[in-house]
Specification:
Oligomer: single chain
Number of strands: 4
Shape: globular
Low-confidence stretches: 1-6
Helix content: over 70%
Distance between the termini: 34 Å
Order of helices and strands: HHHHHEEEHHEHH
Structural class: mainly alpha
Length: 224
Amino acid sequence: MEGSEDLNTQLSTGSLKTERIAIIIIILFHTVGIIGFNLPGIDSLFLDIVPWHLLLMAAVIIWSHNRPDAKFGLFALLLFMLGFSAELIGVHTGWLFGSYTYGKTLGIKLFNVPLMIGVNWFLLIYATGVLMQRSRVKNVYARILVGALLLVLLDILIEPVAIHFDYWHWTDGAIPIKNYFCWFAVSGLMLFIFEKFKFPPQSKAAPVLLLMEFVFFMILGLVN
C-alpha cells in the first residue's frame, strides 16, 4: 500500500520486532482455531476458549500499538463501552440490529450481553481504522465509508458461522436486513471516533488481524 513504507520508517526497530511477533501470533492462533473448529471431538473445547482467544488478540493488539498512552487506553475503553451498549440496546429492544439473543460461546454475560462483544467491537474497529490509515484513501470520510462497508462484508461472513456455533441466534430465524444497516451505522460512528483520536502511524499487526478474521469466517462458512 502507498504510504506503508513511510509508516514503517516511523516505527522503531523494537516496534518492528513487536510487529513481527504480533503478526505470527495472530496468524498462528487463527490457523489453529480453523483446524480446531473442524475436528470432531475437540471442537467443543475450541468453542469454550473463544473468549480467551478474543482476550489474547486484544492483548496482542494493545502490545503492538505504537506509542501506547492514556489516550489509547481511553479509546479502547470508549470503544468497548459503545460496542457493549449498542448490543445491549439491540438485545433488549431490537432497535439496533434486530431481535436476537446470545448463546454460550462468547462467555460471561452482563444483562444477557457477553462482555467479550465489547472487546470484539474494539478489535474490529481498531483493525479497520489502522488498515484505512495505511491505505491510499486520503479523505477522512471516504476512509470511514470504506471501512464501514468492509465491516458489513465481514458481518455477512460471520452471521452463518455465529449461528452455527452458538455465538448468537435470531429470534425469527432469518437475519434481518436491518442488521447490516445498523452494522454500517455503528461501525461508521466508531471509525469516526478512531479518526478523531489521530493516532500516530501504526504497524501491520491490526490489519493482519482483520485479514485473518475474513479468512477464519470464510473458511468456517464454507466447511460448516
